[in-house]
Amino acid sequence: MFKKTVLFSLFLLSNLAVFNLATANSKPTIKLTVVVDGIRNQKGQICLRIHGDERGFPLSDTSEVKSGCVKIQGSSVKKEFSGLKPGTYAVAVVDDQNGDYKLNRDFLGMPQEGFGISKNPTVSMLKGVPKFQDASFSLKKDTTIRINMKYSLNP
Predict the structure, then answer these.
(1) Cα–Cα distance between 126 and 107 in angstroms, integer?
(2) Cis (ω within 30 of 0) for the bond into 111?
(3) Alpha-carbon distances, residue 61 vs 64, 130, 138 (angstroms)
(4) CB 93 within 8 A of CB 46
């Protein structure tokens, strides 16, 4: 009986030590809420992609950390992303009217669907596609950002 009690106690202590070690090494996670305003269409979906660095930003998923789509139900939508680590991020948004999960462009490269980028930078023929550094923000705690949809380039 004594042996069983000692073994059981050792088992409990070792499991408790492993649990404490795992808890001590886990990093806090953050929730990012993205509100997209100025949606013109009432069909389709708004697709959002969170990027962790400049690779492929904003047009490809090369540096994608998280993504998701929301069915359009009005001129504004909200999407929450949880489990993010503290860091620097940028968000790209597409008013995906045809369900292909990407920004469709014409033969000149001009957007044929609505789009948006965190920090709402100017997007024009002169400036081109915004750089990650122009759209990125530091995420240290639960945060809400707002992105305005664009349906044409800035002059």
Answers:
(1) 18
(2) no
(3) 5, 16, 20
(4) yes
Radius of gyration of the chain (CA): 22
Q: What is the pLDDT of residues 126-152, one digit of tens each?
A: 888 899 999 999 999 999 999 999 999
Listing DSSP states for 57-123 in one string gives TTTSSTTEEEEEEEE--SSEEEEEEEEEPSEEEEEEEEEESSSSSS--B-TTS-BSS-EEETT----
Give 104-112's long-range contacts (Cβ < 8 A, gap of 24+).
Answer: 110/153, 111/150, 111/151, 111/152, 111/153
Q: Name the token pair of 39.
A: 């949606």
For residues 7 and 150, give the distance between their C-alpha atoms in angstroms, rounded to a whole number: 66
CA distance 37 to 60: 22
Distance CA 13, CA 137 (A): 43
Pairing mode of beta strands 76-84, 30-37? antiparallel
Is 29 within 8 Å of 23 (Cβ atoms)?
Answer: no
What is the DSSP secondary-structure string of 126-148?
A: TTBSPPHHHH-EEESS-EEEEEE
pTM, rounded to two decimals: 0.81
